[in-house]
Design goal:
4-stranded mixed beta sheet, globular, mainly beta, single chain, about 40% strand, 7-stranded mixed beta sheet, Hypothetical Protein Aq_1857, Chain: A
Length: about 140
């Protein structure tokens, strides 16, 4: 997997948000995953600059660790793994494993290139605590 959490890239304009319905029975619209257009543009740019094949998907997930208990993962994979949820937005495949989906319900993935640093950001309404760098959280 190619790690996106530590790549630096150029500035893009934020144009809106794409909503990915999570497809879980009983889930509300607020549980859907949102990806800002700025993040989509950055994913495309990273794929192009690093010669990542068009058919690779964006893997979004969580893992144990970080100063708040859980940390976000973001990278590219050639294909979905067993039991992954496969979503697609604007021609970009998105892979999420079932365990991570539970923690990612309702998040907005964005990209920031402001004075406080460049990188992908996760706005998670379910997080009860976060760290200063924004890459780890607790529920």
């Amino acid at each position: 997997m190619i790690d996106l959490m530590n790549l630096n890239t150029a500035k893009e304009e934020n144009l809106g948000v794409e909503i990915i319905p999570i497809g879980i029975t009983g889930a509300s619209d607020s549980d859907n995953i949102s990806i800002a257009q700025k993040a989509i543009n950055e994913v495309r740019k990273i794929k192009s600059q690093n010669n990542i094949p068009d058919d690779y998907g964006l893997r979004v997930g969580v893992k144990g660790g970080g100063c708040s208990g859980m940390s976000y993962t973001l990278g590219f994979d050639a294909s979905a793994k067993d039991n992954d949820r496969l979503y697609e937005t604007q021609g970009i495949k998105v892979f999420i494993d079932p365990k991570s989906l539970f923690y990612l319900m309702g998040i907005t993935l964005d990209y920031s290139d402001g004075l406080n640093g460049k990188g992908f950001t996760f706005n998670n309404p379910n997080a009860t605590k976060t760290c200063g760098c924004g890459s780890s959280f607790g529920v």
